[in-house]
Design brief:
about 50% helix; 16 helices; hpI Integrase, Chain A; 3 domains; alpha+beta; Double Stranded RNA Binding Domain; about 400 residues; single chain; five-stranded mixed sheet
């Protein structure tokens, strides 16, 4: 059963299963269509004739895996090949039986990860591939990777649930692209539940905060100490601190500010941080002291033309001396938020300052708002009813 309509998200969403296997052709791009199976499954495809007159149908991918715009873009590219006398369906079958997961990984890096993701994210992807995926599925043909393979791999990592979930997310993205690029029909990762992750929150007590400050004051690696101080005073992520440049800071005037460019932030948008007097003093003094500050990096590496890559060695030493072995660098960000909540600032304001992606991320600190409220209730109870029951 055929229909003709302009395919838009609204049209695709409105098409329901009616017990028939039917196609809705796009009236703006000949051959491009939506197929709705009796089960309600929706997928995009193209229909065309080869130069020899044979009719072909080529599935682009399921709706949900592909958006309407992505499917239309892919359809236009393939139909352009048809106009040149090529047969993309034949080419896809040839590719499908020849590309391995290693080949897909190489293509993923070149066509998606490196041009579209932050350098740190690419490094994380490379580590996941090297440690968990390469040896287990690297030689497998893309179209031969099945759901059981993915489930077995995911289950083998259940002792490290966070890493298992990161692995599944990376593999799922690769397989979505494999569908788009014609290497397989469907993503075998779809529907596999992730492991529950325990959200780890660690805050400093007043004594611990004083101990950390004392150790930082004596730390011989001043670059590492000042990077840690900047994270403490701004709640910035480690990557944001280490990739900071002097031209991002405007320390003069009545409203000193740190403008983090989109390339430095996790949510890929500019984040503006107003700086406290303590942060301004720290940065002003460090700029005079910092070696190779002319190179532009606030915390330069051994090669002054590059930023410092990490703080692993000094941070391990700082934690040990301050007796904070269980305290991660990222916990400085949590501690910043806990201080702000305890001082009465709203969650929305804290989330905006920290550059959170969503309200849910900031909501993890909501329970901390109970502490000052509990203190208030205790204080009022003491003032008004010092000895209940003795009236």
């Amino acid at each position: 059963m055929k229909q003709n309509r302009k395919l838009t998200k609204r049209v695709v969403d409105s098409e329901d299963a009616n017990g028939l296997d039917r196609k809705v052709f796009d009236n703006a791009l000949a051959g491009f269509h939506l197929r709705i199976k009796p089960s309600g499954l929706k997928s995009f495809a193209i229909q065309y004739r080869t130069r020899g007159g044979r009719q072909r149908s080529l599935t682009l991918g399921r709706y949900g895996t592909l958006t309407v715009d992505e499917a239309r873009h892919e359809a236009r590219l393939l139909l352009t090949q048809v106009a040149k006398g090529e047969d993309p369906s034949l080419d896809r079958n040839t590719k499908r039986h020849s590309v391995s997961m290693q080949g897909l990984w190489d293509e993923y890096l070149v066509k998606h990860a490196k041009p579209k993701k932050a350098p740190r994210s690419v490094v994380e992807d490379e580590a996941i591939w090297r440690l968990w995926l390469n040896k287990t599925i690297g030689p497998i043909k893309v179209d031969q990777l099945g759901r059981k393979d993915v489930e077995h791999l995911h289950a083998s990592m259940q002792h490290v649930p966070s890493r298992a979930n990161r692995m599944l997310a990376l593999l799922s993205k690769m397989m979505n692209l494999a569908v788009l690029w014609g290497y397989c029909e469907k993503n075998p990762c779809m529907g596999i539940p992730k492991y529950r992750e325990v959200c780890r929150e660690r805050f400093l007590t007043s004594d611990e905060r004083e101990a950390l400050a004392s150790v930082l004051g004596k730390e011989s690696d001043r670059c590492a100490a000042n990077a840690t101080w900047l994270a403490m005073l701004t709640g910035a992520r480690r990557g944001e601190v280490l990739n900071a440049k002097w031209d991002q800071f405007h320390l003069d005037g009545h409203a000193p500010i740190w403008i983090l460019p989109a390339s430095n932030t996790k949510q890929r948008r500019i984040n503006r941080k107003l700086l406290s007097a303590q942060a301004v003093m720290l940065l002003s003094e460090w700029k005079q002291e910092c070696p190779n500050s002319d190179a532009g990096w606030v915390f330069p590496g051994k090669d002054p033309m590059l930023p410092r890559p990490d703080l692993k060695g000094p941070w391990r030493r700082i934690r040990k001396t301050a007796k904070l072995e269980d305290f991660r660098f990222h916990d400085l960000r949590h501690d910043f938020a806990s201080l702000a909540v305890g001082d009465g600032w709203s969650l929305s304001m804290i989330g905006k300052y920290l550059g959170h992606n969503s309200v849910q991320t900031t909501q993890r600190y909501a329970h901390l708002q109970d502490d000052p409220l509990r203190a208030m209730a205790e204080r009022i109870g003491t003032l008004a009813y010092d000895k209940p029951g003795n009236g």
